[in-house]
């Protein structure tokens, strides 16, 4: 049995590095997802405040994670089939809650939300603001506090 040559081993390592350009690590105790080069350089947190993620698939070119519906729990047979609620479609409930608040409470919520997302990058803030406005146009006060143009945010979120 012959030993593989050093050259073929180096080629294998080069091919592996070309295929695997980023590593993703789940830090379950802190609710964060990290991205880094295979040599652990250029580390960054790409998701935070995510309570116990099951797994993650990342579209590296788009810079975002991809939903995995195959990981959802199966529908439950009740009075018909029930599946997981898609929070990206229905804005009625959060809008109803926002409209029940007194105007001063609405402003406090807008200010608090703006403080919480203020450190995030604009490409994260804009879809958040667009979702707020879908719940209630008055919740657009978050955009005003962040200095975001609502029209451009709504276009970016579509």
Keywords:
158 residues; alpha+beta; 2 domains; three-stranded antiparallel beta sheet; two-stranded antiparallel ribbon; 16% strand; extended
Q: Could you describe the 3D structure shown?
A:
The protein is an alpha+beta fold. The chain has helices at residues 6-19, 92-100, 103-117, 122-135, 141-146, 150-157, and strands at 22-27, 32-37, 44-47, 58-59, 64-65, 76-78, 80-82. Strand 2 and strand 3 form a beta hairpin. The longest helix is centred in the C-terminal third of the chain and has 15 residues, at 103-117.
Strand order of the largest sheet: 1-2-3
Low-confidence segments, given as residue ranges, are none
Which secondary-structure class do the elements indicate?
A: alpha+beta
Number of helices: 6
Query: CA-to-CA gap between the ends?
Result: 60 Å
Total number of strands: 7
Q: How much of the polypeptide forms β-strand, as a percent range?
A: 15-25%
Summed over residues and divided by their number, the pLDDT gives a mean of 74
> What's the helix-strand series?
HEEEEEEEHHHHH
CA radius of gyration: 22 Å
Total individual domains: 2
What does the largest sheet look like? 3 strands, antiparallel
């Amino acid at each position: 049995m012959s030993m593989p040559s050093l050259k073929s081993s180096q080629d294998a390592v080069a091919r592996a590095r070309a295929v695997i350009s980023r590593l993703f690590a789940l830090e379950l105790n802190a609710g964060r997802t990290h991205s880094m080069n295979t040599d652990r350089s250029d580390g960054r947190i790409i998701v935070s405040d995510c309570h116990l993620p099951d797994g993650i698939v990342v579209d590296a070119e788009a810079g975002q994670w991809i939903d995995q519906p195959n990981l959802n729990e199966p529908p439950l047979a009740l009075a018909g089939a029930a599946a997981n609620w898609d929070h990206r479609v229905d804005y009625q409930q959060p809008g109803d809650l926002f409209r029940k608040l007194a105007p001063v409470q609405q402003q406090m919520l807008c200010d608090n939300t703006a403080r919480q997302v203020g450190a995030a990058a604009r490409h994260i803030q804009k879809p958040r603001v667009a979702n707020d406005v879908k719940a209630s146009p008055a919740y657009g006060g978050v955009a005003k506090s962040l200095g975001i143009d609502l029209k451009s945010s709504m276009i970016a979120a579509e």
